[in-house]
């Protein structure tokens, strides 16, 4: 299974819900248990999208948050709202421990000390006390921490989880061990731990690097939308060459909105025009949005005629 589209993801979750018993990292799981885990590496807004899908399909998931991620800030106001929404959906939240951030986790005592410090931050920012942690980009050294718990927090890479559970992971945008569909459909009574990363799942099934670009653009779009809303709330002028045109597209699929925002932000008007015309020809949108896309083309066409050529 190499389809990393959102629709394919929804099918996987639905299959898991209908054929396995949900389990957390606490307690003894039944033989047909499944632990559904998400390590949030690149985009918290993408994780929010995946959390909603899991909830709609009846899956209770485990989201692991990196407090030191370079591409999102879980401790910001918007980040806190997203993390708390995971809890509202009935999901659990754990620590995605970035060992490289600390640089000095060489002993079990130091690992426990760092986990306690992170747990305190989770309690302060999100009002929750994580019960499990996973390593971010674990090296062979981190994989030698085999105890079931450290500082009372369950280790997702413990010896127990690595020997008593089957495992499937989409790390780096592909199923590194065995396709998840094969693993789930195997006639086995051994519990299963599934690791996915929200950034690898997109509306359109591109290759991994392109999906990562989409995930990062998703974060940009999320922040741009908040920026636009705040200007309206505070009655301030939104100075942009394209905001009026882009506002027409609020009803079209979000991936297309992201592409149009990205193209126009870099001044690629002709590329945006060509994409809009292609979408109109495909007639993949409903009639009202087809009309809005046509109005969008009219506005962009006028803008393109008034632009000075780049020397």
Structural overview:
This protein is an alpha/beta fold and 311 residues long. The chain has two domains: 6-200, TIM Barrel, CATH 3.20.20; 208-306, no CATH class. Helices cover 49% and strands 12% of the residues. The chain has twelve helices and nine strands. Strands 1, 2, 3, 4, 5, 6, 7, 8 and 9 form a nine-stranded mixed β-sheet that branches. Helix 2 links the parallel strand 2 and strand 3 (62-65). The protein is globular and about 65 Å long. It starts with 5 loop residues before the first helix and ends in a 5-residue tail after the last helix. 32% of the residues are buried.
Could you write a compact summary of the structure shown?
By secondary structure, this protein is of the alpha/beta class. 49% of the residues lie in helices and 12% in strands.
Mean pLDDT: 91
Q: Tally of extended strands? A: 9
Major beta sheet summary: 9 strands, mixed
Report low-confidence residues grouped into runs of 5 or more. Answer: none
Integer count of domains? 2
- Strand portion, in percent? 5-15%
Question: Helix share of residues?
Answer: 40-55%
The assigned structural class equals: alpha/beta
Q: Which series of helices and strands comes N to C?
A: HEEHEHEHHEEEHEHEHHHHH
Fill in the CATH topology of the largest domain. Answer: TIM Barrel
Going by CATH, what is the homologous superfamily of the largest domain? Glycoside hydrolase/deacetylase
**Any guess at the CATH architecture of the largest domain?**
Alpha-Beta Barrel
